[in-house]
């Protein structure tokens, strides 16, 4: 006679093993899905926008947009453009007589693609932090070797490669809501780097 008890045992043993295997597979799939979902969720968490937009100023002006053929760029400035928001800027928000990052967030950086002169002083090709010391009647323009820095909190004068002083031009009719930098050509391979915010404007002579 057939061994019914043995067959029943084998049947239930196989059934239980099959169920366990199916459960293990299901758990493995759920674990993989959970990991993928966690990775996807993490990958989508981007940092929010900065309060001050980042911008680029070229010499020649608007170079990347207007570039033709073998045109060459002489300088590029990367900087943040904080808003005035009806605040008193120079002398209050930006104190007189103190080193400024020249904008907001990371210190402004300027790249010279060939040797240049800033207000008559020579500077080698390269990338520098562009710090300033605003005063009521003039600004001190500083090029510093320490780049990729936040603000002017760790500014080191020993890293300066150039300092020049330029006069301030104040205009009552023109008002710049955002801090702005733009190059203006004044001749062959020479021009002015204009920096303005609110009603204050400075022009820094540059040549190549």
TrEMBL record:
Range of residues in the leader sequence: 1-43
Alphabetized UniProt keyword annotations: Signal
InterPro entries: DUF2911 (IPR021314)
Keyword Signal: yes
Domain of life from the UniProt record: Bacteria
Pfam family, one: DUF2911
Protein's name in the database: DUF2911 family protein
